[in-house]
């Protein structure tokens, strides 16, 4: 059989649907989903920390983590005697965020089950989400700082970000800027490189404080003051 025949046979046997089913199977466990959702805070966690958040034994978490790594949902980073796990890439984070939106019912009874602090502000992997993030996105557009399609800053927006010290030029091939649908608000917040850069700025300047081990984000008094001053965003 020629090399061309082998290639053709391989293409015929390849099934994207099979790969999709394998990915879904790797996620089809409540404990593994708890692990994946915990890692939506954008940080790397140890196996011990993840077993605690999932409420399972360390030995059980080990097999779950191996399954997730094998499915390319997580990557493992070794540092000294410790091993840390984090989401494999932004695409996995986007997939999880979409799943949260699909499973979230926009009704008063369902909304009441979500902690108020998560509705107000949380991390969506490496950018800010929640009510405050949606208000910020809307403000950027209404004040002419962000293009109406959310795909890039305006010239005025770039100047504003640079004056504040927010990085605007991506150093990777990642999307520079994009609207990200917020699952709890059903409106857009800022994603892409600029979304990540903005979150980094907010945390560095203590406009926000992260809650260790959770996606919850607390807006500091200084943060509310500065968000109002620079972006006309209020509680």
Automatic annotation (TrEMBL):
<dbReference type="InterPro" id="IPR001845">
    <property type="entry name" value="HTH_ArsR_DNA-bd_dom"/>
</dbReference>
<dbReference type="GO" id="GO:0097063">
    <property type="term" value="F:cadmium ion sensor activity"/>
</dbReference>
<dbReference type="Pfam" id="PF12840">
    <property type="entry name" value="HTH_20"/>
</dbReference>
<dbReference type="GO" id="GO:0003677">
    <property type="term" value="F:DNA binding"/>
</dbReference>
<feature type="domain" description="HTH arsR-type">
    <location>
        <begin position="11"/>
        <end position="107"/>
    </location>
</feature>
<dbReference type="InterPro" id="IPR036388">
    <property type="entry name" value="WH-like_DNA-bd_sf"/>
</dbReference>
<dbReference type="GO" id="GO:0010288">
    <property type="term" value="P:response to lead ion"/>
</dbReference>
<dbReference type="GO" id="GO:0046686">
    <property type="term" value="P:response to cadmium ion"/>
</dbReference>
<dbReference type="InterPro" id="IPR011991">
    <property type="entry name" value="ArsR-like_HTH"/>
</dbReference>
<dbReference type="InterPro" id="IPR036390">
    <property type="entry name" value="WH_DNA-bd_sf"/>
</dbReference>
<dbReference type="GO" id="GO:0032791">
    <property type="term" value="F:lead ion binding"/>
</dbReference>
<protein>
    <submittedName>
        <fullName>ArsR family transcriptional regulator</fullName>
    </submittedName>
</protein>
<dbReference type="GO" id="GO:0003700">
    <property type="term" value="F:DNA-binding transcription factor activity"/>
</dbReference>
<dbReference type="InterPro" id="IPR052543">
    <property type="entry name" value="HTH_Metal-responsive_Reg"/>
</dbReference>
């Amino acid at each position: 059989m020629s090399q061309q025949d082998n290639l053709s046979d391989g293409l015929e046997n390849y099934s994207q649907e099979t790969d999709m089913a394998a990915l879904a199977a790797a996620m089809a466990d409540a404990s593994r989903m708890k692990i994946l959702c915990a890692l939506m805070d954008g940080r790397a966690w140890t196996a011990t920390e993840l077993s605690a958040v999932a409420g399972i034994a360390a030995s059980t978490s080990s097999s779950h983590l191996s399954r997730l790594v094998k499915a390319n949902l997580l990557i493992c980073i070794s540092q000294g005697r410790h091993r840390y796990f984090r989401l494999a890439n932004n695409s996995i984070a986007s997939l999880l965020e979409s799943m949260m939106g699909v499973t979230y019912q926009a009704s008063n009874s369902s909304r009441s089950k979500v902690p108020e602090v998560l509705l107000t502000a949380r991390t969506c992997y490496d950018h800010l989400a929640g009510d405050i993030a949606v208000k910020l996105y809307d403000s950027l557009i209404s004040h002419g700082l962000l293009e109406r399609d959310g795909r890039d800053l305006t010239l005025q927006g770039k100047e504003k970000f640079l004056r504040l010290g927010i990085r605007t030029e991506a150093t990777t091939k990642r999307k520079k800027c994009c609207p990200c649908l917020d699952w709890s608000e059903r409106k857009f917040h800022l994603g892409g490189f600029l979304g990540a850069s903005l979150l980094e700025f907010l945390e560095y300047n203590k406009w926000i404080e992260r809650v260790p081990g959770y996606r919850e984000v607390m807006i500091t008094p200084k943060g509310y003051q500065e968000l109002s001053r620079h972006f006309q965003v209020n509680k």
